[in-house]
Amino acid sequence: PLSRYPPLINDISFWLPSETYSQNDFYDLVRTIGGDLIEKVVLLDEFAHPKTKKVSHCYRIIYRHPERTLTQDEVQHIHRAIEESAVRELGVQGRF
């Protein structure tokens, strides 16, 4: 069932580590931290720097609560935890 409450959308972008990176690991990390508040995670953009050859991903995370309207302050705490965990656990370099 779809919620009648509005979504909150936040983007996150980071440089990928030189070693192996899996998008599924990022999706799992987001869902582990955000739980049922995560409605959708979408890869918006992939960018390769022409000089350094580093690759960056930008993801859109859509948050929505099924029973009430979320505030940006509530979501910001979760989003910050996702950023910090992505750096710590996946070895990415944040662009936030």
UniProtKB/TrEMBL annotation:
Primary location recorded for the protein, binned into one broad class: mitochondrion
Pfam families with a match to the protein in the record: FDX-ACB
UniProtKB keywords: Aminoacyl-tRNA synthetase, ATP-binding, Ligase, Mitochondrion, Nucleotide-binding, Protein biosynthesis, Transit peptide
UniProt GO molecular function: ATP binding; phenylalanine-tRNA ligase activity
Superkingdom, taxonomy of origin: Eukaryota
Catalytic reactions of this protein: tRNA(Phe) + L-phenylalanine + ATP = L-phenylalanyl-tRNA(Phe) + AMP + diphosphate + H(+)
Leading EC class: ligase
Keyword Zinc-finger part of the UniProt annotation: no
EC number: 6.1.1.20
GO cellular component: mitochondrial matrix
Gene3D superfamilies membership: Ferrodoxin-fold anticodon-binding domain (3.30.70.380)
PROSITE patterns registered for this protein in UniProt: FDX_ACB (PS51447)
Biological process, per Gene Ontology: translation
InterPro entries found in the cross-reference section: Fdx_antiC-bd, Fdx_antiC-bd_sf
Residue ranges annotated for the FDX-ACB domain, each copy included: 3-95
Subcellular location per the Swiss-Prot or TrEMBL entry: Mitochondrion matrix
Family, per entry: Belongs to the class-II aminoacyl-tRNA synthetase family.
Protein name: phenylalanine--tRNA ligase
Gene source species: Pycnonotus jocosus
Name of the encoding gene: Fars2_1
